[in-house]
C-alpha cells in the first residue's frame, strides 16, 4: 500500500485526509511537526506533502533523496519556502496548489475592503477603551460610490473584481497580462493610475523577483491620503518600513494586512506572554489604530482546506504512478 507523509497537519485537516485515504486506499501518516523535524519519518514513505512558511533547511533535500523520495508537494499556492533548484538536483519534483479556492481569499479581501471603507478599525480601538463616541473624520464610504484598485488580476483578483462589480463599485485593475474576459467588469490601467484613483488598493500577486517590494514609499505617495491598502497576497510584496512611515504620516489612511514581512515568526503562534519585542515592525503595526492584522488566514475556509488536501495528494499519486502533474514547478 502506498504510504504518504503529511507534515504540519492541523486538526481541521484530519477529516479530509481520512476521507482521501479511504477513497484511494492509501496510508497517510500525519504529524504536526515541520519537515525540518520530521525527516526521519520519511524512511519508509513513498510520498511527501508539506505546509510551512519557514524555509526548508538545505540538508533536507539530500535526506529525502537518500530515503528514495521522488517528490515534494506543498499544499499551498506559495512555494518560496522551497529551494526548487536544490530539490530538482536531488531528483525531487515539486508541486503546489495554485488554486485551492480563489473565492475564499477574494471574500476575505472584500470583507477587509468593507472594513477599511467603513473605518471599523477606528471603532474597534475606541470601543476596546470604552469610548463609544464617533467623530466627523470617521464618516465612511458606501462601496457603490468607491473605486477599488486590484493589483494582480488573476484567479483571486478576478474573483474579487466580479464580487465588487456586483456591488456597484468601480473596479480598476493592474496586471502584466490584462484579461479580456473581464471587459465591462475591470478597467485595466497603469499601476500609477490605479494608485492615484483607488479608495482601496487590494494586492493579489504571486511572490516572485518582480513582485518583491512592489509597493514602496514612492507608491504610497501616489495614493490618496484617505485610501486604504489590503494585502492578502504575500508579505514581501510591500516594503514594511515604508508602509509604517506612510501610515504614521497620514500618507495613506489605513491598512488591512493578512500577510506581512516577518509573519513566519508570529503566524500560528501564541505570543500572549512573549509579546512582539523581537519583531519591532510587526509590533509597531499591531499597536496602530489604523491597521488591521490577521495571521494569514484569508484561505481558511471549509472548501479551501479540503481542496488543499485533495489536490496536493492527487499530485503525489500522479507522480508516484509515473504521470505528470499540471502543478509541477519548473524554474
Automatic annotation (TrEMBL):
PROSITE patterns: D_2_HYDROXYACID_DH_1. Residues 110-298 form the D-isomer specific 2-hydroxyacid dehydrogenase NAD-binding domain. It comes from the Bacteria. Residues 5-330 form the D-isomer specific 2-hydroxyacid dehydrogenase catalytic domain. It comes from Limosilactobacillus agrestis. PANTHER family: 2-HYDROXYACID DEHYDROGENASE HOMOLOG 1-RELATED (PTHR43026:SF1). GO terms for molecular function: (S)-2-hydroxyglutarate dehydrogenase activity; D-lactate dehydrogenase (NAD+) activity; NAD binding; phosphoglycerate dehydrogenase activity. Pfam families: 2-Hacid_dh, 2-Hacid_dh_C. Keywords: NAD, Oxidoreductase. One of its GO terms (biological process) is L-serine biosynthetic process. The keyword Oxidoreductase applies. InterPro entries: D-isomer_2_OHA_DH_cat_dom (IPR006139), D-isomer_DH_CS1 (IPR029752), D-isomer_DH_NAD-bd (IPR006140), D-LDH-like (IPR058205), NAD(P)-bd_dom_sf (IPR036291). Belongs to the D-isomer specific 2-hydroxyacid dehydrogenase family. Transmembrane segments: none annotated. This is D-2-hydroxyacid dehydrogenase.
